[in-house]
Amino acid sequence: MKTKISFKEAILYWLKLGFISFGGPAAQISMMHEEIVEKKKWIDDKSFFHALNFTMILPGPEAQQLATYLGWLMHGRLGGLIAGTLFILPSFFILSLLTYIYINYSDNIWGEGILYGIKAAVIAIIFSASIKIAKKVLKKSYYWMTAVAAFLAINILDINLPIIIIIAGTIGFLFHYLKNNNEYKKKSPLEFFKNKVIKKSMKTLFIALSIWLIVFFFIIYTNESILINLSLFFSQAALVTFGGAYALLPYVFQNIIESHGWLTSQQMIDGLALGESTPGPLIMIVTYVGFIVGWYNDILNLGSPITGAIICAVLATFFTFLPSFAFIFIGAPLIELTKDNKSFEIPLNFITSAVVGLIVNLGYMLAYNSLWTDNNGTKNFDIHLLILIVFSLLALTKAKVGILPLLITLALTGMMMKFYF
């Protein structure tokens, strides 16, 4: 890493990245590596990938957390805070604007057509993501078994996603412990708490909890049940959704749609479409969810849908990303002490294997609800949508078409189909 990195130059880079970071976490991570490591040489390869490995085991958006980590490496906590915030801020405003347009103009034939086409692309993107992750992670039979078990657990047994993730992680740690039993016997647990870096991280944890409590107590003071429930839900989601945005989506689908009834399945699919077509992490769909909830509920008796929508969008985003910043500022100093430690590799693989099964289940649920439509009590199968999904999946996996070109093409295709058919 360079001895001197211009703070102004770093801020301008993070702001630019916030506007151009299309294509999901893989593309965003590649952008950061090309610019920060290869071109600017602000960070060396070893530090970059060490930071990446840490963010991969955390719940939440790995690309945003990586940006925060790299910002912290260059300019401390202020640098990390600015990097992580600028990575999501443009997306927040763009997605809020698109959600407003969606609410007010999606019911005309052009809007319906665009969303119809993008719906097929989104479903294909989810299956494509599961295929990519599966190829990287499911290299052993027990990883395949974990993925299948996770799919069956959430789809047939109706077990909550956090429980599935916790079980998978626990099995992974036990598996790793049994393989490295002698290594653990040599270490004293008390040594862990004697390091000054540990004490500093514990202090950071206390600060993060204090910020959360202050904001949450203020929300409780408003006595608005929807705001309280939103805050608790997204705080919990941020802590249990290992595997990034695609792990968050099954959790949101299972709870917001089925348990709380805040959104419909169609609204969720449309939100995925908007999230895929904007820069920033896909997990920014929480902004869309908050906006929708605030728009259709009279928050604080304000009588203003747009004000309620903005309040809920801000809260959903804040409670989702606060843990992401906390994880980095607490964990990064510790991780820098253990650059050669690979003890998280096997537990991470078990968790990621479970996430593969959960992502496949999400694609299955969205595809089923989209392909089988209810028409006056009878179920009709949408063969045209199936064709679009299949061609979209082939475009992503075989032709290597980018996400943004695919979304634009499918939006125009859907619009023409609705207009002419």
Defining key terms:
mainly alpha, 2 strands, two-stranded antiparallel ribbon, 421 residues, 2 domains, globular, 17 helices
Overview of the molecule:
There is one protein chain. With 421 residues, the chain is an all-alpha fold. It has 2 domains: 82 residues, no CATH class; 323 residues, no CATH class. It is built from 17 helices and 2 strands. Strands 1-2 form a two-stranded antiparallel ribbon. A hairpin with a 2-residue loop joins strand 1 and strand 2. Helix 7 runs antiparallel to helix 15, helix 11 crosses helix 15 and helix 13 packs antiparallel against helix 14. The longest helix is centred in the N-terminal third of the chain and has 44 residues. It is globular, with a radius of gyration of 22 Å.
Strand and helix map with partners:
Layout: H1 7-20, H2 24-39, H3 45-56, H4 62-105, H5 109-137, H6 141-155, H7 161-179, H8 181-185, H9 196-222, H10 225-240, H11 245-260, H12 265-276, H13 285-296, H14 305-335, H15 345-371, E1 372-375, E2 378-381, H16 383-397, H17 403-420
Antiparallel strand pairs: 1-2
Helix pairs in contact: 1-4, 2-4, 3-4, 3-14, 4-13, 4-14, 5-12, 5-15, 5-16, 5-17, 6-7, 6-15, 7-15, 9-14, 10-14, 11-15, 13-14
Cα Rg: 22 Å
Helix content: over 70%
Output the strand order for the largest sheet. 1-2
Mean pLDDT: 82
- Element pattern in H and E: HHHHHHHHHHHHHHHEEHH
C-alpha end-to-end distance: 58 Å
Largest sheet: 2 strands, antiparallel
Number of strands: 2
* Structural class based on helices, strands and sheet pairing: mainly alpha
Q: How many structural domains?
A: 2
Total number of helices: 17
